[in-house]
Amino acid sequence: MRKYFYMKANREITPVENDEMQMKAKLRISEILSDERVYIPRRFRESIDKLSLYNPKGVLEKANALLLEGDDGAYDLGNRLNDLNGKEWTKFTCSWFVFNALHSDLKEEREFLSSTEDHPATFSPTMIEGFINFFTKEGMNVFDPFAGIGSTLVAAARTKRNGFGVELNPKYFGIAKSRVPDFEDHIINGSCEDIGEFDLPLQDFCISSPPYWDVLNRSTKDFESSRKSKGLDSTYSTEDDDLGNIADYDEFVERLCKVYESIYKIMKPGSYTVIILKNVKKEGTLYPLAWDVARKLSKLYVLKDEKIWIQDKIGLAPYGYPYSWVSNILHHYCLILQKK
Ligand SMILES: C[S@@+](CC[C@H](N)C(=O)[O-])C[C@H]1O[C@@H](n2cnc3c(N)ncnc32)[C@H](O)[C@@H]1O
Q: Would you say the pTM of this structure is higher than 0.90?
């Protein structure tokens, strides 16, 4: 007999061995499915004949979670944040993760670029999908104020969310539009310092990686010359509006934080904003950029957390050898802020 009600026993999800309860659970599932007030994620709606009810203690009256055959996590019908089941939710809450650019993402990116087109600092849409899946439900709005060539918007399209973005450089803006034609009208070619002037709808989630101060203007001669020899950009632009061209650290932090202060106004209450940043070095001194931005923005947002992104496939350079301590910084801070 097909089982409709499961519980946890000896740490395993097992069917409740009671035929009457199984039939009652079947009825309860059809009631839930026909109640329009109950939000049910698409993957559950699309597999109605594989749905069961779940309560860890086997108490049918208290069962408020759906199980999908083959999945070992339950989706709580009271989930107000995302479409994840409990297992997926818990997995994402680890305070660190390792992620290296995926070949499949790079291949997708290249399909939209000519041989001389590129962007010096993109992130992988697959990595951003994880954040979007955690911080939104399907159909919600996702915003990237430093959209670059549109990786966040690609992630939004893949996860069936609505992507919005602002990008200063017209070339990157054009590439972003060609990557996500469905969001063509959602991408603005302008400065995110002017966000208040744009007609953007309220957003459910914001995720972005701003320029890491002026690091690209100070990158090694090797990086610069190898990219220039291929006709590729080694910086974002020469524009004054480009935050990556601000040489003074305090001015950079000030202007960057102002951007996120204006973004606060277009975020829905309770929504999250993730800012991916690094602490950066200049002339042998570490500038705690991620920490300074976190501290400053915590006066407006609730600073919920940091999630550390580690790259472990980048070769180590012998900086400082053999006379001084100079690290290879291969981790980034994903600052997690919430609108009160
Ligand atoms: C680290 S990159 C983001 C790349 C993006 N995540 C991607 O994967 O394509 C930072 C971007 O911010 C843009 N930018 C710099 N200043 C800006 C400003 N004032 N308004 C909007 N975009 C800006 C740069 O042109 C660059 O594309």
A: yes
